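Box S1 | Example of a co-folding query
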Amino acid sequence: MITDIVKSIDAQAQKHLKTVFFDEMGETHTYQELLDCSNSLAAWLDDKKIVPAKGPIMFYGDHQFEIVTGFVGAVKAGHAYIPVETGSALPRMQSIINTAHPRLVIAIDDFPVDKLDYDGAVINKFELQQIFAQKSSYTPDHEVLGDDPFYILFTSGTTGSPKGVPISHTNICSFANWMRGDDFNIPAEQVYLGQTPFSFDVSHMYWLNAVLSGGTIKAIPLKVVQNFGQLFKILPNLGINVFVGTPSFGEMLLLSPDFNETKMPDLKYFLFCGEELTPSTVKRLFQRFPKAHIFNTYGPTEAAVAITSCEITKDMAKNLKRLPIGYDKPGVTTSIWKDGKEVTTPGEHGEIIIAGDSVAPHGYLNNPAKTAKNFFKLNGVQAYRTGDAGFIAKDGSRHIIGRMDFQIKLHGFRVELDEVRSSLEMSQYIKQAVAVPKYNRNHQATHLIAYVIAQPNDFASERELTQAIRASLKDKIMDYMMPTQFVYVDSFPTSANGKIAVKQMIAEANK
Ligand code: AMP
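Box S1 (continued) | Returned holo structure for adenosine monophosphate
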């Protein structure tokens, strides 16, 4: 059992000194380097005292060895890391600086300090490498522990200013023990796909999992992720055992004909998180990887990456219209609430509330109003209102229906946009769909628009395709839920975290 993340990382590093820890497009770094460089940084931080005790350090970069090793060095010396992705919008970065007040930014890529109101120190890649090179032995004695923040992640909402979520050592330790335990049964020393940006908490599913088990991270830089041709070319040669990512990213990889068991025989585990995993995606994955272990995991940033999971079987993908998000991780209880009361009838809908050792202990950073709104004590235990609608089935499995704010009234009927989407995806002519409400001036929803990525087909026109889709869904979707307009697209816009940007699509449809 892991009780001190820093000590466990060091123990794994000592055990795997010669193993490659990080491989970025063929540029490799061993566990020996992770150990030495993180020690050097921790010693330097202690010595220089630029950052006050327990103060956070902002990291600016992509998927580099220096970034993840920097995280380890920071927590060794008692500092939380704030990951900020290269190219983030200036207002977002300014808001992060104003909220978290970091006294040090470690920037691996060019940090636009002259365009920001920031008076703290900045270290660039070259300077960091010099610090790394000052070999110093280091015995952690004030590493991040207990309620201290391990990292601070800023939410990626498309509207409003981002909220900072300090995730404690207790939170992340509980997550790490769950990840390394029987619910997933992922062996040690595996090769992980490092695609999810470090500024998205799902990245902990690969980098922490790897570093706590002598695993190797095959990191894919952002510009390669965005270049399908290059991504698809390198993917089969990476020898990946574990995929971590959003279903949208999984869908993207399915576009590559080489994404299959013959070309990638080592790929055995799929860990999905961040948005709805659909039966259609799972079915296609099983066609490509018949022996795969596919997990659906669910959770918000406010509750340390993920808090429910289950393995999705072929039968589930074949027979269910929507997949469960699984069962609570140890240390967490999810419950369903409606009108201020807990719902105890199986199947009844309400808001998903998360309580337990995964929930950020102090809520949002320097934001008492939002903290009071979303965090509370449930029977003395730290709890978070997710804003997700869901239910608990008779067998205890948890299910998400969608965001509460994606629930609309259409001609008096309550309609869940995700429910419409999953119904649309039951048509054999549809690969993926997103349902978007069209509002009138009084902000009443008047009808639904379906944005559709169609399956390859021989219809002479989009009109004929739409007719065929409507006919195929006749008994599968209630009349009032049937979109009146179908728009055919090749892809959906995605957020920085790789999720379908539904809110953006709604805003654009109603411009
Ligand atoms: P974030 O804080 O950016 O990780 O977003 C958390 C939100 O993503 C949750 O509150 C859900 O609305 C959604 N989400 C996460 N995992 C899943 C999942 N497995 N299925 C459906 N929605 C999910």
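Residues 238 and 457 are 33 Å apart (CA to CA). The first strand starts at residue 20 and ends at 24.
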